[in-house]
Amino acid sequence: MGSYKIIIWGIGRRTQRYMDFGYFENCTIVAFCDKKKYDTTYYGYKVYKPHQIKNFINEVDFLVISTQLFSEVYKECLD
Fold it and tell me: Which residues of the chain are modeled with pLDDT < 50?
């Protein structure tokens, strides 16, 4: 188990590369979040809709935005 608890937003090719290369091996992944591919699992973790992560965002240390649409996600997080 890793030292930081994280939620990863986005389950596209970028996240797949990060996972395959072990970028998060020192972290505890709590969940994944995606606007289009939710209610499934990804690398064995549940994928939530964006509004669902608000229920447990206080339980994690970081929200990792792993998408090219960073500014869009950032604005959504502020709402």
Answer: none
